Structures are given as C-alpha cells and as structure tokens.
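Q: For a teaching handout, I want to show students what a protein-ligand complex looks like in token form. Below are the inputs, and the small molecule is 6-phosphogluconic acid. Please produce the holo structure.
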Amino acid sequence: MAVPSGIGSCGLGLVGLGVMGQNLALNLGDRGFSVAVFNRTPEKTRQFMEREVSWRDIRPGYTLEEFVVLLRRPRTILILIAAGPPVNAVIEDLLPLLAPRDLLIDGGNSHFSDTNYRGRVLTEKGLLFMGLGISGGAKGARFGPSLMPGSPPEAYERVRPLLEAIAAQKDGEPCVAYLGKGSVGHYVKMVHNGVEYGLMQLLAETYDLMKRGLGLTAADLAAVYADWNQGPLHSYLVEITAKIFRHLDEATGLPLVELIQDRAGQKGSGMWTTWDAMDLKVPTPNIDVAVAMRDLSGYKHEREEAAHLLHGPPAQYKGDRGRFVAHLEQALYAAMIMTYTQGLALLRRASEAYGYNLSLEAVVRVWRGGCIIRAAMLDELRGAFLAQPGLPNLLLDPGLSKEVLSRQKSLRKVVGVAATLGVPAPGFMAALAYFDAYRSASLPTNLIQAQRDFFGAHTYERVDKPEVFHTEWEDD
Ligand code: 6PG
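A: Here is the structure, written as tokens, with 6-phosphogluconic acid included.
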C-alpha cells in the first residue's frame, strides 16, 4: 500500500465521486473541512483531484485501505453512491477496515427498510450509522443542500457542525435538523420525493391546460410561470419551469421542452411513498396520481393508437384566457397545499407507526431551503406546526384552511374546465376530491359497509346503537 500524505488528518471520508459526491466534497472543502475521497474507479479520483480540488484540503485514497488511513479516529465516512446493493457492497468492503465508534453515513436515496437493516447490523458491530436524505440535486450539493439525517443522537452531534456548515441557509437558519433515530431521515426524504412528484404533476397539468386549452406558446408560458414565481407560488419548481420554457434548442431554435419525449422516468421514491402510505392507511392521492401518470406516460404506443379511436371534446377554451390563468394560479396554490398536507399527514402517521418521534415543524424548516420542494408557502406551513405541534392535518389549521377556502372557487373552476375540455388533470381533481372528502362529516362509505356485509358477511357498525351487526340482505 502506498503511504498517502496526511495520515489521520481528514475529519470526513467521502466514498463515491459521482456529480453529487464531487460537489459535496467541494462544498466541504470550501468551508474549510479536510476531506478524504475514494471512488471505485481510481481514474475518476485522479481526474477530480487534477481538475477540481485546487487549494482545498481534499486528499485522495486510490484504494479503500489508503482512504481509511487518511481519516481521523473515530472515523466518519459518507457514502454517496447509487442506492441498493452497491451500498451493501461498499459497507462490506469497508467493514474489515473500521473500528468501533466509526460512523458510516449513507447519503443516497435508500429505501428506509434498507436503512433500518443496515443500522441494526452496524450497531451490532459497534459502529454508528446515519441515513442521510440529501435534496437539491447537483447544485444543492455544491452550494447548500437540504439535509435530512436520522441516527443515534451521538452520531448527529459528531457531524452537526459539518452538516450545518454545508447545508443551505434560510433566514439565517441551516436547512438541517436532527430528525430522530433510525431510518427517519431516509423516510422524510422519501416523502419529500413523493411530494416532489405531486407538485411536478400539478405543474405539468397547468402546462397542458394553458398549451392545449388556451393555446399559449412556450414564450407565453415562460412569462406566466415567471410571474407566478413573483407571488405566493414562489418556489424552486415554478422558477425552473419558467426557465425551461425560455430555453431554446440550439440546433432547431425551437423550445427544447417541445422536443422532449413525453415519457417520464422515475427511480422509485415516489412509488415507495405511495406504497407505504397505503400500508399505513394514509390517503396521499396527489402522490398516487403523480406516480400513475408517469406510468401512463410510458404507454406511448397505446396512447397514440387510442388518440385515433377515443375522441373527446375540442380542447380549446372559449372563455377569458387571462381570467382562467388567474384561476389556475389560485388553484395551483390550493392544490400544492393539499399535496404538502398529504405528505405531512403521512409523516405524522409514520412517526407513530415506526416510533420516529418526528417534529413536523423541523421537517418543514429543513424543506424551506436547498431542496427541490422549497417554496415560500412552507413558511406558513411551519407557522401552523409551531402553533400546534400535534396538528393531525394542515387543513385543520385556521390560517391554512382560510388560504384553501379562499381558492376553492378557482380549484373547482380548473377541474370543471379540464373535464369539459377533456384535458387530463388528475392532480387538480385529486386535490379537490381530497378537500371535499376531508371536509365531509359523512361519506357514502356506509354503502360500502353494507355491500361488504351483503356479499361477505363482513359486518357493520350502526350510527344509533353500539355493537357489530350482520344482516341477511337477500331476505329483504
Ligand atoms: C432531490 C431529488 C433527487 C432526484 C430523485 C427523483 O431531492 O434532490 O428528489 O433525489 O431527482 O431521485 O428522481 P426520480 O424522478 O427519477 O424518481
């Protein structure tokens, strides 16, 4: 083994020099931390060291052994590689080189059940483990991500100064907080991504309605989203949407977005959110439809065939276009609140089910900056949890309920127009249905109970008497 310079000098080791890893290493280096880096292919490490590192105290390990001896003890190692089996493989390779109290941090989008498992195995070996959700993409990693850690308190205290230094700062507060033990950080990141899917679906629907329904051009759309971003909808996703519509393809001069295939990809975190929400019996319809619409987008050939067969009404809106755009803005705000509401209600339930003891105020605080779902409206959501830490659903907050109530007319208008024009708007429809169902003191689910009892003798409860009943319905 070559003896590297700087033995035992680095406070943090980083495994994985993909874009995220490189950017986080530079972010750490900028803030004066000494970092050791390792990548499976040494060539990448070499290139990174030559091209990017400059004056920063970043040291390369070209083998895992070289890398590990660079680290100060007890060691702290951040793993930033693709989620799944590769994480297990890196941990297994590292294990023989580590000692008790060393801390391993998984900064990927790992499924929370994998994090639970790894935490158990590593704790048995005397090591510390942290599942760290990181949001903000490549730019966030470089200049300030939102960080969602879950670990034993001792592990968090060890890396707290470092995490607070590299995280995004919002109104003087770092976008990181100790969220609790075990897999809570990765769980919160999973729900972040579920909400991200929901918000992106809503924005796609506004695009469809304005393009097909109102005939707006990409330049018009860029102006609308830029204008929305100046108001209550101010958020990262609205901001980048405006930029996307402004971007022209160099070769053709056309708006690039119009040249992109309409099949949406996914790595799975939105789907995981929906799965777990169903497991925990928490309704998250905005996230569910967002996953379903990405799936449906994949059936391109069938859609093309169906387009010739299944005719709908003409998609042109006949009313005042400006007024409809104003309704869309209001409806989008209400539907976005509904999407955050569903994600946070899921976190509330998951906290009980998995013993996370999670503060939703802390979650919203961490989401206010650096991450993909950062938005001005999160200040209001945070205020709701500060006023009532145990709030079961954001729609029960007096301030937020007013925000939604004042926009319900617009939400109904958008859903009505979408249905009339035949433009699919399942996100807006799901948001409105969630709102209407949640505010219904009685739902028609008594009929479902009767049907279940009719065909399966599943029994039912009555509104006027205690106990459980079964009826021989056929005798009626
Ligand atoms: C973030 C993003 C990031 C990534 C997701 C979603 O918070 O920085 O959520 O984690 O973009 O993996 O990707 P998919 O859309 O491919 O599921």
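A: Two things your students might notice: The CA atoms of residues 10 and 360 lie 34 Å apart. The chain has three domains: 12-182, 189-438, 444-476.
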